[in-house]
Amino acid sequence: MQTIRIKGATGDSRIVVGERLANLPAYLPAGPTVIITDANVARLYGREFPAAHVIAIGSGEKVKNLDTVRAVYAELLAQRADRDVSIVGIGGGIVCDIAGFVAATYLRGVRCGFVASTLLAQVDASIGGKNGVNFEGYKNMVGTFSQPAFVLCDLEMLRTLPVSEVRCGLAEIVKHAAIADAAMFAGLEREAEGALGLDLGVVERLVHDSLVIKAAIVNRDEKEAGERRKLNFGHTFGHAVEAVAGIPHGEAVAIGMALAAVISQRRGLIAEEELQRFLRLLQRLGLPTWIQADRGAVLEALGKDKKRAGESIHFVLLEGIGRARVAEIPLGELREAVETLGLDGLAAPPGACGEVQIRSPRS
Ligand SMILES: NC(=O)c1ccc[n+]([C@@H]2O[C@H](COP(=O)([O-])OP(=O)(O)OC[C@H]3O[C@@H](n4cnc5c(N)ncnc54)[C@H](O)[C@@H]3O)[C@@H](O)[C@H]2O)c1
Ligand SMILES: [Zn+2]
Questions:
Q1: What is the assigned CATH class of domain 163-346?
Q2: Is this structure's pTM higher than 0.85?
Q3: For 88-117, what is the mean pLDDT?
Q4: Ligand 1: lining residues by beta carbon, under 6 Å
């Protein structure tokens, strides 16, 4: 078991990798606890929850909105929850976002902690203090910065996770290694199969190393004024693909990272050999590096991104494997990269995604 700490202006967070759900009571202060979870997690793990009032939300990105938040507020009120209440989110990134948002706003903020139950939540969504919900189709449009008091990463809970969800978590792990840690990237190359097969020794190392990277960046730039933007590697283009093609977040991020690596190579920031290494690792992890989607629609979604500044867009590029920089990329260069590079799969069969509504995504 290993502990990582975040000390932020919005609170301190104690993150424990390898802690079990059964030990959650040891992290709870005296006073009432309300657990927020989703229906799947309640079905699989509800029996192991400590005695507490449980609010189970639905699952899927569609429930991550203010209607769900409002329903949870109403239930807290019905429970007469006051400022002594501790809110604990037990679930994946969606549960963490909802629980974190509710806890940061109910009565102007009550104590909050998470038991992260998906790989993606363990390496990314549960830590860092960002709690966002979607609004009018815009992703993470409304939210707060507020650090959870604790995050428990129970690795055993990953055993029930569908492999597609494991892959999505691995995409964020690749992201962390690619932007900050060449040795971790090499380790991932050595242990890709173990990671995918949920060898928990391998997974524990990867979760820990990922969290060390994210926690260090958050400790230096909690409110994303600069360095934290690096954590958006793969996400600007990824969110555009996610919105247009409706594929899972981790897969879209993999495609976004592949494109960013291609642009990095074209700009001479990484060697062709490093680009190939990068693409090969994604492929070995079962992650896509291109997609058949409406190229025009993807470019249009990109053009609407709020990280856009005039005719250019904030984009995270690699400077070798294990180092990243935030650059302003002219939209024309992005368009050219999408159109002319090994992402020809972006050319859609006619009408493939024509009906998809495109919104401007945020990380
Ligand atoms: N706030 C942040 O900093 C941050 C960072 C990254 C991602 N996110 C958000 O996280 C969300 C994605 O998170 P996610 O991938 O965890 O999705 P999720 O919460 O939807 O979980 C994925 C699926 O796995 C199920 N599940 C959860 N734990 C399980 C388990 N142990 N066994 C079996 N099934 C289980 C869930 O019910 C759900 O169906 C997105 O909304 C994204 O925007 C937030
Ligand atoms: Zn992500």
A1: mainly alpha
A2: yes
A3: 98
A4: 38, 40-41, 44, 59, 61, 64, 91-95, 97, 117-118, 120-121, 124-125, 128, 130-132, 140, 157, 160-161, 165, 168, 249
